[in-house]
Amino acid sequence: MIQVQNVDIGKGSFQKGIEDIYKSYDLKSVFWIVDSAVKNKIKRFVKTKNIIFLEIRHEPSTDQVDDLVKFIKKNKYKIKCLGIIGGGSVIDLGKAVSVMLTNKGYAKDYQGWEIPKKKGIKKIIFPSLAGTGAEATRSAVLNSEEKKQGINSIFCLPDRVYLDSFLINSVPKEIEFYTGMDCYIHSIESLNGSFGNKLTKQYASSAKSLCENYFLNSSENKEDLLTASFLAGTAIMNSEVGVTHVLSYGLSFLFGVPHGKANAIIFSKLKEVYGEPVDTFTKMLKKNSIKLPENLARDMSEKDFLKMYEIGKKMENPLRHIFGNNWISKFSEDFALDIYKRI
């Protein structure tokens, strides 16, 4: 089973992480990639000129990775370690930059499985959102001109992760909910399929319970969310996601719907696949006063529906996980378009 080997969690772990980094590396050999949303929060702790703040307005792309690599190389930074502070988009960008600093070519050429040949720069992760699971996985999911797909490589696996509620205690409610639902859906999809093992099922089951307690019972324990995110991320890395992600990728790729929200929209229409957890999800929406976007299909064409279906159809492993070897007949055009036309 693959998982991040070094994880610190708890109050003060953010500051401990910074101290740990500078015990191992000098100031000039560390470069920071940070979500601009936490700039004011972290600036008194991370005091260096080797830093770039990213404003996330859309899903991360291969072009962004290439631009970041060019920036670092142009300024002749001799980097031995990347410090990455952010949500899933920033973490995925950082993991991809780590790999592309040591491998030649363009990031789009590495979308797929086990393409990088050289180990990436050391990468230390500090999540500022809880739910994406990016801090736990060996994938950096990116959009290119042709597709949305990860750079899936053991070289993308973080070297160390620090989970501190300090970084997530001021996340807006709606963003917290949708990233939390990404985690919840990770757990459900890992549990419902043929891939995985007893460990992944235990991880996913624990993440599911933590999410339900937080969003249904008004728990205020942010560490529960961070724990759930890491556990569910580890679970899907060692099993697979499912048809929610398969169908949501097209929604994000073609229409720019943020990943967590796209998953929530699709999951709400999958009662016939996932059963009771969809009812629980509906209760969480109501409990947290979140209203899903409606009538999205009204502005989509038949061509759009078919394009999204074709994007999903390429995701064979998740489809095999949920539907088995006969996935082609079960993930039919009629099945997918019925879901899309109801969003």
Structure description:
By secondary structure, the chain is α/β, with parallel strands linked by helices. It has two domains: 7-167, Rossmann fold; 173-340, Dehydroquinate synthase-like, alpha domain (Up-down Bundle). It has helices at 13-24, 39-42, 62-74, 88-100, 173-191, 198-216, 222-237, 243-255, 259-267, 271-274, 276-287, 302-313, 316-323, 327-330, 333-340; strands at residues 7-9, 30-35, 51-54, 81-86, 112-113, 122-127, 139-143, 148-152, 160-163. The strands form two sheets. It has a six-stranded parallel beta sheet with strand order 1-9-6-4-2-3, sandwiched between helices. The protein has a three-stranded mixed beta sheet with strand order 5-8-7. Helix 2 links the parallel strand 2 and strand 3 (51-54). Helix 5 crosses helix 9, helix 8 crosses helix 9 and helix 8 crosses helix 12 (302-313). It is globular.
The ordered H/E elements are EHEHEHEHEEEEEHHHHHHHHHHH
- End-to-end CA span: 36 Å
Judged by helices, strands and strand pairing, the structural class is alpha/beta
By CATH, the architecture of the largest domain is named Up-down Bundle
Mind telling me the CATH superfamily name of the largest domain? Dehydroquinate synthase-like - alpha domain
Strand order of the largest sheet: 1-9-6-4-2-3
**Tertiary shape:** globular
CATH class of the largest domain: Mainly Alpha
Give the DSSP E fraction (strand runs of 2 or more residues): 5-15%
> Roughly how much helix do the residues carry, as a percent range?
40-55%
Work out the count of structural domains. Answer: 2
